[in-house]
Design a protein that fits this description.
Length: about 475
């Protein structure tokens, strides 16, 4: 693509050098620059791209987009000055990759909990309807049935547009993606056109990055503020911030709820560890999911599918065939007669949702044992709350290591234990080794009990001192079950 065409997407303050040159690639990481490429110098949270302009030129960059001109100007390089490179990179990327969201319907899902489940179920549902579909999620990215690994909930803007460009080129009609608060704040979704946005809920998370809950809320709300007039904004009326999210949006607002009058109304009629009978807009449907939080997720899926033009009866039929997402309330039955549930719950609210669901389905016919930890180098304020909620809603708790990252696992455990009073402490034991913690919990479980292993869900690694060691909660549980036979 000609540089002069590419630059029409952004605001420029000055240009040094010719714009009549072909651009072969676009990058914001100097190590990935190719010959004839455009390098965008972004001031990131870890490093300032302006410090790597020289390296990008050495790698073959022929054009540089920056906020500050470098001291040394090379005659054969084009330098473009723009007021905000973080804002510019998404717009440049979407232009370079052929404006993919003009060719497919992109729906973004944001909120603290439920993003992965809703985005993945919409992907599965629309494939079931016969469409080619893309998915961008925490667990995995898909271009129809092609699996692509993922590193972040929402990729950087260049990777994101390259991925969406491939989806459009390969005939995808729809794409569903998780939209994290980081990606909104860092303008990774800049330049994309969304056909719809879905809000799940908002509880304490990522305060290590956003610093305050208000900043976290503002980041989420900014996504809905930016939706176009012809998009839909589907929000959870049961969450106290649900209508706050959509109060300034230009998009068509629709609501879903288990409690109040709304566009997409649901009610749990029956529940068990095998599934639920739901009433959705006065029609009954059996689903293979457990818990009110999943009923809420399914309402969001139902509402979004209807807003995308599908017939309600067709959507209900598809809902009845869907299965839970890997690592989200994943139930395994022990030969000893207890149930182990592996779940990604890693915030206080998600933990409360899962444990409340287990208690509601158990109806005091068994004990609840919880294995829980907290991640290192993240919001420390939620650690004592995680321990408190686990002890409040469980009969026994094993506090253990999660992804300690660059912290000492025992220090994280101590932070959690500090939140417990004497009575709660009697229910709790601490075992640093996660495999041993799971093994101990399995030994404590009796027939009819439920064992929750929280925090990691689909993850197949443990992050220790910057190294990801293979670790899969489900694998560990299954190996323990084999010894119980």
């Amino acid at each position: 693509m000609k540089l002069i065409e590419l630059l029409k997407a952004i605001r420029t303050e000055s240009i040094s050098g010719t714009t009549d040159k072909d651009i072969t690639d676009i990058q914001m990481d100097s190590r990935r620059v190719q010959k004839g490429g455009l390098f965008v110098a972004v001031k990131g949270t870890q490093a300032d791209g302006h410090a790597f302009i020289g390296k990008a030129i050495d790698q073959g960059a022929t054009a540089i987009v920056c906020e500050t001109m470098p001291n040394e100007i090379q005659a054969d390089i084009t330098y473009i000055l723009t007021p905000d490179t973080e804002d510019a990179v998404g717009k440049l990327a979407t232009t370079f990759y052929g404006n993919p969201t003009a060719k497919l319907d992109l729906v973004g899902v944001t909120g603290t909990n439920g993003k992965t489940t809703i985005a993945t179920l919409l992907y599965k549902m629309f494939r079931r309807f016969g469409y080619k579909v893309g998915l961008i999620s925490t667990v995995c990215n898909y271009i129809d049935d092609e699996v692509l690994p993922t590193e972040h909930t929402t990729p950087d803007p260049i990777t994101l547009n390259r991925l969406l460009g491939r989806m459009a080129d390969e005939g995808c009609k729809f794409a569903f993606m998780e939209v994290s608060s980081h990606s909104i704040d860092q303008k990774r979704i800049g330049g994309l056109k969304f056909a719809g946005g879905i809000f799940t809920n908002l509880t304490r998370d990522h305060l290590d990055y956003h610093k305050t809950f208000e900043n976290y809320l503002k980041a989420k709300k900014a996504f809905f503020d930016s939706l176009p007039k012809d998009a839909f904004a589907l929000t959870n009326a049961d969450d106290r911030n649900g209508l706050v999210m959509t109060q300034n949006t230009k998009a068509k607002v629709a609501t879903y709820s288990l409690r109040t009058l709304c566009d997409f109304k649901g009610k749990v009629l029956e529940d068990s560890f095998e599934g639920m009978l739901l009433d959705i807009n006065n029609k009954e449907v059996n689903v293979q999911f457990i818990g009110r939080f999943n009923a809420s997720n399914l309402l969001a899926v139902y509402g979004a599918a209807c807003l995308l033009g599908k017939e309600p009866d067709e959507v209900l039929l598809a809902l009845s065939t869907l299965r839970p997402v890997n690592g989200r309330f994943d139930a395994l039955r022990s030969p000893k007669g207890y149930t182990a549930i592996v779940d990604y719950a890693h915030t206080p609210d998600a933990l409360v949702n899962v444990l409340t669901t287990i208690r509601e389905v158990l109806r005091d016919q068994g004990s609840v044992i919880t294995v829980v930890g907290a991640g290192g180098n993240r919001d420390k304020g939620k650690r004592p709350i995680m321990a408190q909620e686990s002890a409040r809603l469980s009969d026994k708790v094993v506090i253990t290591s999660d992804n300690p990252r660059f912290e000492e696992p025992q220090d994280i455990i101590d932070d959690m234990l500090a939140g417990l009073d004497k009575e709660a402490s009697r229910k709790v034991i601490a075992i640093v080794d996660r495999k041993e913690a799971i093994r101990t919990a399995c030994m404590l479980a009796q027939p009819g009990d439920v064992l929750l292993i929280a925090g990691k869900g689909h993850e197949n690694y443990q992050d220790v001192k910057g190294v990801k060691h293979h670790f899969d909660d489900k694998e560990v549980v299954r190996s323990i079950f084999e010894t119980e036979n």
